[in-house]
Write a structure and sequence with these properties.
Alpha-Beta Plaits; four-stranded antiparallel beta sheet; binds (R)-mevalonate; 3-hydroxy-3-methylglutaryl-coenzyme A Reductase, Chain A, domain 2; alpha+beta
């Protein structure tokens, strides 16, 4: 058997976890299978039931991949204080969010408003018949389509949600014969992906059936192709506005008093403007926002890929990728805010299945989806404030390097005593993997240190 043949397998999913690990060890890692097995098994949950639950979330699971679960306390949002759960591997994110939360705690806190909660789904259609007849027919049967999905929507309607509207969009001038049914949905406290997709597939099937039965279409005119039915992760009508604001002098001074509040406010505003003008800067600026957003989205068992893709589409909504946040310095007042879409849920999906997601929600006081939307966007704004404040004052590397040092020290298995000495030593020196390694080597050989 050639090496490549050994690397191809059918029935991998049917192997048990141990055999899966042994197979990858043998064919890809070229390592001792028992050692590899022990390494992965070291990350299995002690409790068999808990591990079974985690295994069930995905396919071909061989282990868990731990990422730190941290807390950013002191978040005052709409006059309520939260300790926010954040799951992130990036060393300075939680510290920066906590810092910004504390800064604004004494300056009135964050004000967040949910502006809208509508989500969108699409049925993509190819129809080769008469355009006007088709558009008129859709208008005629729209109510029937909405009525036809009642078995799916009844429970959601009891909770205040459901299908809010349907429209037929004509794209046939761009792609021949292409139309789209765009559905508008209210999914209340659930993210609603399954609900929306079920409704859409039913709309597609109903449309086909209704046209088939309709006497107004000839047999050839009845021919309609449903290309696909799927929700859109772009939710520009599921949006939160969050702001912080204070009088400029309340900002205090920066860099040990060397930078005045007025200078800071102006420099900060300019930094946000730069991210509005230039897509290269906007991408990094928004990445900083997503550092905060994603970590809470993950901690609460929500879909960070959906939130990410939506945020970036929204950031490009006028045709150029721009900052999600905005800043004004006017009439002696500094205002920093952000309007962004966020589609998440507090019921269904992983939110109630993952024990730590459940705990995260409990920690936040079991919020409904609107409250969680407000919390998440606030953390994004706080994260952005912390990043831009560092960038426009001390520079980002000082804080980053401090956290980086902790990681490098762990990499070289520094003892607590060694780490303490290293922190003192690197207080005023450049931190790099090699400089820390050299320092530890000297420390370990030279007993006088
Ligand atoms: C690093 O993860 C995020 C920042 O680069 C964001 C920014 O530049 O605004 C610090």
């Amino acid at each position: 058997m050639t090496e490549e043949e050994g690397q191809i397998i059918s029935g991998f999913s049917k192997l048990n976890k141990r055999d899966k690990i042994k197979w990858i060890a043998k064919n890809f890692l070229y390592a001792n299978p028992i050692e590899v097995l022990n390494e992965f098994a070291g990350f299995w949950h002690d409790n068999i039931e808990s591990q079974k639950l985690l295994d069930g979330f995905s396919e071909n699971t061989i282990a868990n991949f731990p990422i730190p679960f941290g807390i950013a306390p002191n978040f005052k949002i709409n006059d309520k204080v939260y300790a926010v759960p954040m799951v992130t591997e990036e060393s300075s994110v939680v510290a920066a969010a906590s810092n910004a939360a504390k800064f604004w705690l004494t300056r009135g806190g964050f004000k967040a408003t949910v502006l809208s909660t509508i989500k969108i789904g699409q049925v993509h259609i190819i129809y080769k018949g008469d355009k006007d007849k088709f558009i008129a027919y859709f208008k005629e049967i729209k109510a029937k389509l909405i009525e036809g999905v009642k078995p799916i929507t009844a429970k959601m309607e009891e909770r205040g949600g459901g299908v809010k509207d349907l429209e037929l969009i004509d794209f046939s001038h761009i792609e021949p014969n292409y139309y789209q049914i765009r559905g508008y949905f209210e999914t209340v406290d659930s993210m609603g992906a399954n609900f929306i997709n079920s409704c859409l597939e039913e709309f597609g099937a109903l449309l086909k059936d209704l046209m088939d039965e309709s006497p107004i279409f000839t047999p050839t005119e009845k021919d309609i192709e449903i290309v696909m039915c799927i929700l859109s992760n772009y939710t520009p009508d599921c949006v939160v506005r969050c702001e912080v604001s204070c009088r400029i002098e309340e900002l205090g001074t920066f860099e040990g008093g060397k930078m005045s509040a007025q200078e800071f406010a102006e420099k900060f505003r300019r930094a946000v403007t730069i991210a509005t003008i230039d897509p290269y800067r906007a991408t990094t600026h928004n990445k900083g926002i997503m550092n905060g957003i994603d970590s809470v989205v993950i901690a609460t068992g929500n879909d960070f890929r959906a939130v990410e893709s939506c945020a970036h589409t929204y950031a490009s909504r006028d045709g150029q990728y721009r900052s999600l946040s905005d800043c004004t310095v006017e009439n002696g007042v500094f205002t920093f805010g952000m309007t962004m879409p966020i589609a998440i849920g507090t019921v269904g999906g992983l939110t109630s299945l993952h024990p730590l997601a459940k705990r995260s929600l409990e920690l936040l006081g079991n919020p409904n989806a609107k409250e969680l939307m407000a919390i998440i966007v606030t953390v994004g704004l706080a994260q952005n404030f912390a990043a831009v404040r560092s960038l426009t004052t001390t520079g980002i590397q000082k804080g980053h390097m401090k956290m980086h040092l902790t990681n490098i020290l762990a990499q070289f298995q520094a003892t607590d005593a060694e780490a303490e000495k290293a922190r003192g030593y690197f207080e005023d020196k450049t931190i790099s993997v090699s400089s820390v390694r050299d320092y530890l080597e000297t420390l370990r050989t030279d007993k006088r240190l």
